[in-house]
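Quick one: co-fold with pyridoxal-5'-phosphate.
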Amino acid sequence: MRIPARVRATMAPPLGPLMERAAARRREGRELFMLAQAMVDCPPPPAFTRALADALRAGDPAMHRYAPDPGTAELRRALAAHLAGSFGLAPDPERELLVTPGANQAAYQLLSVLLDPGDEALLVTPWYFNHEMAIRLLGGRARTAPAEAASGFVPSIESLLAAWTPRLRLLVLVSPNNPTGARYPDDWLRALAGAIAGDERWRGVWILCDQTYQELYFEGGPPLSLGALPELSGRVLTVGSFSKSFALAGWRLGFLCGPAGVLDQALKVQDSSVICAPHAAQIALAHVLDAREEAEAYLATSRERLRRRRDALLAPLREAGRWELNVPGGACFAFVGLPGGASSASRLAAAASTAAPATAAPAIAASEPAGAQPGAAAAFAGSLLEAEGVAVVTGEVFGPRWSRFLRLGFGTESEERLSEAGRRIARHWAGM
Ligand SMILES: Cc1ncc(COP(=O)(O)O)c(C=O)c1O
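Sure, here it is.
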């Protein structure tokens, strides 16, 4: 039986083999430091579980039924008020907001309605792999512009503008970023908006802002939303998630905010795929957002907890020296480069030839720069898991050029354990 080439060319979910190895370690009672998951481990806001329990106790029949496709009226109203605060956006809750089962579904719906086969979407690398996978599945093409480690993983505006082609339909930005943790500076976002608005060629290009980590930032106030800037009015589509900010990943809640004309089209995809986000979860989330002060206090506590965890993880690597470190400004990841230098190449080569990689090989044409060692960080990560029990994700899954990098997640282990994990990573490298 024939499977279309665009589907076969799409990378398999890349973390599966790693998660299986980690689960096997757990089953065998062996130590495991889980730095591979894009999750936060704290319980959700108490208002969420309270509202769910109340609805169950009251026997509310609505929670077992479909919700309206675009989300319940109560949640869209509460969400619009929430977005005005945390995102600086002012959507009409009836026409410019869609409640989705997560941010991934929101992005997939957008890509479905904005790309024709052969159309291009511009991704910043290292990319969020599910965006690249979705573009391929839909028959689109991902163009890329790099965000270099030396620039704090913030891409240059010139490189983004220069990536324009007549087939470009969409620019995708993720800030705060997965996998780098970079928070694009507000001034950079303003300058980008001005540059795009002033460039005739870009007139037909949409901008998709994935702001899944909008509320997880570590310094200053909330990040600026491009969707709030008048220069780009009517061109920006914002997707967001409650998986991380409110630790509700399993309840599948996210949103899509943008011009009604696009959302009307995206609703067709939602209706024909998932119909609606889980109804019971929508009822409970509306309560969380309505209890504004409690929600704000919860988010402030999460930010502070993550900030301390970030520092605990990075301190041992900084102390070890020579690791390429960028301090994440948000999200729950650090994207770190293995130490460079003369002896590194032979260590990496040795690791690559002996250890099993920790993640599935991506089905992407990786054009590594000269001197890089494809698979080397994957091999390091594989032996790190085996020898030290630390599970991390290797750079390859975030696009070509990143095989010397590791994504270290700090959302699911305590400060103390992250500090120990950081020591083990440094020790393992030093001992190779
Ligand atoms: C940038 C980004 N977008 C979207 C998602 C998926 O979020 P959701 O659980 O809301 O689908 C993730 C999850 O890791 C992410 O990192």
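If it helps, The pocket of pyridoxal-5'-phosphate is lined by residues 38, 102-104, 128, 174, 178, 210, 212, 241, 243, 249, 254 (CB under 6 Å).
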